[in-house]
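Worked Example 4.2. Consider the chain below.
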Amino acid sequence: MSKETSKFLSYVLRHAPDAIGITLDRQGWVDIDTLLAAALRSGTAIDRVTLDEIVATSDKKRFTLSPDGSRIRAAQGHSVEVTLDLAPCKPPPILFHGTAIHAVPAILANGLRPGARNHVHLSSEAETARRVGRRHGKPAVLTVAAQSMWQAGTHFYRADNGVWLVGHVPPAYLGRFEEP
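Applying the procedure from the previous section yields the following structure tokens:
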């Protein structure tokens, strides 16, 4: 799998479909033939075999194919306006968020906000959150009292790749994860 091709697909399907002249539908889907043709016109040649390999082998399962295999979308992480049409679902008692240690004081004071994305991303595993945090510097893992938020009326969604999504996490539901 080409890491560069996977990054290109993430960029186009999450943040900038217009960069190659495609339009995502309301749920973030685009016809695969349209995507491949537009990618080629923009200078990135991707064939269907390579695309299928990227979808199948992506460790983060970033992409979802439609049941008939004719369309593709990013599973989560969008900064463009899409509605993934995920049903709200009850989260586990605790979820985790990885960040850089230097960001922790501001997050604990203000809560977790999605920034340029549509949702805050949470993990059901501390180690996954630690890997995410490592991308931003020295990692820190925060806990989210997800079930308490759910009971208070907050909607959680689970993306096709298992990432938990929520609009915002207020400071009262955050804590620092301590290794056992």
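DSSP finds six helices and nine strands in the chain. The beta strands are 30-31, 63-65, 71-74, 95-100, 120-122, 139-144, 157-158, 164-166, 174-176. Compare this with Example 4.1 before moving on.
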